Predict the 3D structure of the following.
Amino acid sequence: MEFARVVGRRRDIHFYSPWQPVEMEKVQKVLEAARLASRAMNVAFFKAIVVLRDQLSPADRDALKTPFARHQFDLAPVFILWYHDMDAGPTDFAERRWPAVPSGAVYEALALPPLLGWSDRYVSEVVLPEVLGPAWSRGRRPGGNADVGVAIGQAVLCAVDQGLGTSLAPFSEDAARALFSVPEGWEAVTAQFLGYPLEDWAGIGQRAGEDLAPAVFEGDARTPFAFDEDHRERLVAAGMLTAPDSAPWRASELAYLRRLLDEANGPSQGRNHGTPLAGHEPQEGA
Ligand SMILES: Cc1cc2nc3c(=O)[nH]c(=O)nc-3n(C[C@H](O)[C@H](O)[C@H](O)COP(=O)(O)O)c2cc1C
């Protein structure tokens, strides 16, 4: 798909077809897209755990839920738990691990060439001892990092490009730690859900009523960036800007989905659909 169309099509999908599995080839492509994202010093800051919904017991799936993300864990066949590895930089530094900048290998591969002022001496006498060493000897720093965000962004767009619905939401860090042997230095960032949408892509609009002007400035923090209407029209033609408003039938769609899920789970589950759809309990031996 054209990049503009991928961006234009992406929506936060909440309802997934629980019966339609996601091909592992597509999952792998999503992970490769994340791996190839830009990253500081070429350090692999993100870690990801791929979880197959049907290999979890209902109790374990419930344990992963958070107040804002419940039904996704029941409906999406695959979730990727994304982490920020707070030890990745210091470990690469300590072990001089290829191919990170801290190992000097990026310089040796001429990714940071002498032309740009890099030299073996600069890496070994300045970058390593004076910049990275002191920065990483201060210990783990929580709060996520931009690198992981960039990787997740590529993963999200790659999923959409392959026809998958996807969405992000927090998961229970404690439950995941217990269930999946998560190392202490991994900080939970977000869960990414993958599945084929049960809802229509066009049901919910693309950010109705949102005006970029109050968020983007030019030259200083008071002068709004001048958005050009002609450019905007070309983005509409390219498929990047799509219908901003929800479809007129969105409310009916939601009501229908609600009935469908209540029927499958029993009405007492209410909005959160806390159990799997009938027929989608974990498989024997999982
Ligand atoms: C870091 C992050 C956390 C999010 N957490 C939740 C969440 O807890 N529950 C949820 O339903 N959606 C969550 N979302 C999705 C946003 O609500 C959604 O992207 C936003 O409403 C805009 O809608 P759109 O993605 O369809 O354009 C999250 C998105 C991001 C980037």
